[in-house]
Structures are given as structure tokens and as C-alpha cells.
From TrEMBL:
It comes from Sphingomonas paeninsulae. Residues 49-220 form the Extensin-like C-terminal domain. InterPro entries: Extensin-like_C. This is Extensin.
């Protein structure tokens, strides 16, 4: 073979090898720095949607800062209801989901039974409060109550426009219109909340209806 041709081929092979073994390395991609996201409750998107529902209910409320307490108690994604159309006592921190269910219950489920049994309107709702750092049934040991997460409310009575006062303690087992009214609003609550407990559940609930949004669906 012609020496000139061999020399030319050698040069071409060397150049090809250099091209194939380029020493250029792409710079590594930098990961974005970790960002601290303030999350109210478990999911900020869900909270935003929940607050939008409250806005559409024309409920006045204050969005509360997330708080954690000793003993694993907390109030996350919580609001305090200020005006829901019917004056209501002792409403503290409530998770947004509980607040939504409660406002819907108050606005849609109370007045028809009141008109049916009393020919009068509910003008005041009495509760025993919402947040309380304690175990279920106030026991010394055991699981935390949903109250410990601002996820429960206890309703004890109703004041009617004509002055009548209906309470769970006095009227649940008394028969008559008072008992019928309480059982009607209890039944409607079973369509709004997750867990609903009445005096029929145990003696510890003899004076209130317990509503919460945690655990498995249960109504009694």
C-alpha cells in the first residue's frame, strides 16, 4: 500500500478517536435549595379550598396560626368562627373542615325542625367548646380526643325566638317536641360530620351532642 495513503488514514483515525473521547463533561445540575413551606393542617391546597368554601357560606372567621402544644395536642389549619348567621357560644379554634361542616349544619339543618316542632326559629346555639387537650372521654390514659386537635365541638342546647330553651341534658329523654327536635338535628348532623355521639352512646354524653371530623364514620 502507498505509504502516503497509509499516513493519511492514520491521521484520520487519530482525529476520529479524539472526537469520540472528548474530555468535556457537562456540569452537574444544581438542585434547588430546600424551601421551608408553612403548612396549615396536612395540605395547604386542601386548606385553601376549604377556606374558599367558608367564604362562599358568607361566614365571618379568623384564620389562626398553626399551634402545637404539649402532649401531642395541636390546632393546625384552624379558624375561629366569628359570625355564621346564628349566635353560637364558646367557639374556639376549629379545623377548617369542622368549621365548614358546622356552618352548613347551622345554616341548613336547624331551622326547619325548629319550625316543625315549635313554630319558632333557633336564635342561639350553646356549645361546650371546641379545643381541649385531653384523652377520649377525659380518661387518664388512652388515645387523644379529637378535641385535642381542635377537630370536635360539643353542642349542649338551643334558644328559640319565642324564649324556649331546649337542652340535651333536660330534653333528650323527656319525650315531646324537645326530644323530637333534638333527634332531628342529631340525625341531620350524621350527614355532615364523621363521628356523632349523643346520650344514647354513653352516660358521659348525657348533656351534649359531640361532633367531630376524625376517625371512622360513626353516628349514635
Amino acid at each position: 500500500m502507498n505509504r502516503g495513503l497509509i499516513f493519511s488514514l492514520a491521521i484520520l483515525l487519530t482525529l476520529a478517536g479524539c472526537i469520540g473521547r472528548s474530555n468535556h463533561r457537562p456540569s452537574p445540575q444544581r438542585r434547588p435549595p430546600n424551601q421551608t413551606v408553612v403548612v396549615r393542617g396536612n395540605d395547604p391546597v386542601v386548606l385553601k379550598q376549604c377556606l374558599g368554601k367558608l367564604d362562599r357560606l358568607v361566614a365571618r372567621y379568623a384564620l389562626l396560626p398553626d399551634r402545637t402544644f404539649g402532649g401531642s395536642c395541636d390546632a393546625l389549619g384552624a379558624v375561629q368562627l366569628r359570625d355564621i348567621g346564628t349566635p353560637t357560644t364558646n367557639l374556639g379554634a376549629m379545623t377548617c373542615g369542622l368549621a365548614n361542616a358546622f356552618v352548613n349544619w347551622v345554616q341548613n339543618d336547624l331551622q326547619d325542625p325548629a319550625q316543625e316542632y315549635f313554630r319558632s326559629r333557633v336564635v342561639k346555639i350553646e356549645t361546650m367548646g371546641t379545643y381541649s387537650c385531653r384523652n377520649i372521654n377525659g380518661a387518664a390514659t388512652g388515645r387523644l380526643s379529637e378535641h385535642a386537635h381542635a377537630n370536635a365541638v360539643d353542642v349542649s342546647g338551643f334558644v328559640l325566638e319565642d324564649g324556649r330553651h331546649v337542652t340535651v341534658a333536660n330534653d333528650w329523654t323527656a319525650g315531646g317536641d324537645g326530644a323530637a327536635f333534638l333527634r332531628a338535628v342529631h340525625a341531620s348532623a350524621c350527614r355532615r360530620f364523621v363521628t356523632i355521639l349523643s346520650p344514647d352512646y354513653n352516660a358521659l354524653h348525657h348533656d351534649h351532642l359531640h361532633f367531630d371530623m376524625g376517625g371512622k364514620s360513626f353516628c349514635r
